[in-house]
Automatic annotation (TrEMBL):
Name used for this protein in its record: NADP-reducing hydrogenase subunit HndC
UniProt source species: Caloramator mitchellensis
Residue window of the full protein shown: 193 to 577 of 577
Compartmental location: Membrane
Keywords, alphabetical: 2Fe-2S, 4Fe-4S, Iron, Iron-sulfur, Membrane, Metal-binding, NAD, Oxidoreductase, Repeat, Translocase
Cofactor requirements of the protein: [4Fe-4S] cluster; [2Fe-2S] cluster
GO annotations of cellular component type: membrane
GO biological process terms, semicolon-separated: ATP synthesis coupled electron transport
Keyword NAD appears in the UniProt entry: yes
EC number of the protein: 1.12.1.3
GO terms for MF: 2 iron, 2 sulfur cluster binding; 4 iron, 4 sulfur cluster binding; ferredoxin hydrogenase activity; hydrogen dehydrogenase (NADP+) activity; iron ion binding; NADH dehydrogenase (ubiquinone) activity
Amino acid sequence: GQCIMACPVGALYEKENIKEVWRAISNPEKFVVVQTAPAVRVALGEEFGMPIGTRVTGKMVAALRRVGFDKVFDTDFGADLTIMEEGTELISRLNKGENLPLMTSCCPGWVKFVEHYYPEMIDNLSTCKSPSEMEGALIKSYFAAKMGIDPKNIVTVSIMPCVGKKFEGQREELSHEGMQDVDIVLTTRELAQMIKEAGIDFKNLPDEQFDNPFGEGTGAAVIFGATGGVAEAALRTVYEVITGNDLDNVEITAVRGVTGIKEAVIDLNGRQVKAAIAHGLSNARRLLDMIKSGERQYDFIEVMACPGGCVTGGGQPIVDAKTREKMDVRVERAKAIYEEDRHLPIRKSHKNPDITRIYEEFLGQPNSHKSHELLHTHYVKRDRF
Ligand code: SF4
């Protein structure tokens, strides 16, 4: 894995976290809710002998139900919500000319990197929590109230391609009324382990659908799993909101692929908005240094700590050296991500009906007081790892 954090202690955490989830599931007083990140569905199958780049979304949902989770939600819903909140933040910073470039905040490896090495740029980070943390906060507020369950009895589990998310889950900034938004983080590999422990025949499972109300995600959300995906998703929405025009071709190919630093310019009512995308922390450093020296100017930047983005995160199935010689795993898994996007009926976050509903019923507007209370966070300068 390429993850920069927690790797030496990853193995220790793993055993403990799987046990913790089994304990929660077997405790009748606990209502255990799981959500899965976009990149998990294009890699989990590899643990069961399926080829790299196989999409197993439906089987993954079926497996999670059989493992015993009370609700199976999609982090894609949280990703769509992130686009609404972060897109609105971008529009407001562009209008005020403040704290630009806006920097994405969904990757904990990147956020921690800024906190340690570029603390003077902390205000450039979006205040948005990551999609999984946003969704955790809504499970313990909106969903708990809807179901009449005491949020203290809800256990939120996130299945992530990432080892760094284990640290993120414990950040005290990511809690509300003394409860963590996400209680336990399992990696893709750990989920595979649980499915095996449960004796489930994964390959022969039927395809099943996520549960409501956080089961609907768009194509814009699923592409969060590959480098450039968050920028593409944000641009799809910001373009339509600012210009009022329909974006006919939603595929913004300039931001795709495994080039170290990518750039895109989008015309928003005559204003040229410049975006840059970096993946891997050495590219991130190059990008930030170019911004600091004034060599380059951007309005929006997306960074993912892992080369290729979450598809090759530190918690994903490990690919042996022989296979890696034959193919670029980042490219194969990303292909599956873009295929999933093309197959989804809705491909823009602001068109997700569940998103419209949660603003109408609960949050009001993006960046509202309630949104800030539940979906946004802050950062701290950190001296050492
Ligand atoms: Fe985790 Fe994805 Fe960031 Fe890697 S790129 S550290 S998998 S969030």
